Amino acid sequence: MRWITYTLAVALSATAMLAKDDKSKAAGRLDDSAVLFSEIMSAPDRSIPQDLLDKSECIVLVPGLKKGAFVVGGKYGRGFALCRAAGQGWGPPAAIRIEGGSFGLQVGFSSSDVVLLVMNERGMKRLTTDKFTIGADATAALGPVGRNASAQTDAMMTAEILSWSRSRGVFAGASLDGATLRNDLDENKALYGQRWTSKEILNSGAKMPAAAGKLIAELNKYSARKTR
User: Fold this and answer.
1) 3-class SS at 155?
2) Buried b / exposed e across 166-191, counting CB within 10 Å, b at 16+?
């Protein structure tokens, strides 16, 4: 009986340690997302155009993608989607994964970071599904670069998603056609204690995790438009 009790205690302790480790990793990825956004926006001549950021409904940040992960059908990386909550600025982050697809860059080199702007309600609704494929389920265009870059082309006016990528310090528009975005339930559990979907988090009134504080502060710093 004592042996069974001891075994259960060890198992519970191990589970608690794993949960703590997962939460720490999720918090680290949120901080990496904050750093990514801050570094991009702090270079006015090579940043996301301010008018596009102000018009966007949601943003997706995927920091630290590895070149070795760029295999068709493989997992590209993990990041977070955030949408504007009516009257409250940016809402809580929902964890996402980018997987598969053909990953091409405007300037022709492999990527390590990805930023997506979701520009309208149609695109926002895509984020609340279990998964969707860029280019097939959602129209996408390469995002322009430069704080004051013109964003009035037909492609950018009608696209649901605009995409950028950064590698070796160079930030440029990127094609993500064929890549799939899906809910990262494990990461959401680490942050919220529940295996919530993006639909259950984005604009749902979910409590903002403390670990997202740095990211929210950076988004608010560069977002002139706080609400829809």
Assistant:
1) helix
2) bbeeebbbbbbeebbbbbbbebbbbb
pTM of the entire structure?
0.81
* Amino acid letter, residue 174: A
Q: Which two tokens stand for residue 195?
A: 């295996």
Mean pLDDT by 10 residues, the chain (228 residues): 52 44 85 95 87 93 64 66 84 91 46 87 92 90 78 68 87 86 95 94 87 96 67
Do the Cβ atoms of 127 and 198 come closer than 8 Å?
yes
Query: What is the rounded distance in angstroms from the CA atom of residue 214 to the CA atom of residue 145?
Result: 24
- Give the C-alpha separation, 95 to 187, whole Å: 6
Identity of the amino acid at 101: G
Reduce the DSSP state of residue 3 to 3 states and report it: helix
DSSP count for the chain of H helices, then E strands: 7, 11
Three-class SS of residue 120? coil
Dig out the tokens for 180 from the structure. 């799939």
Reported residue count of the chain is 228
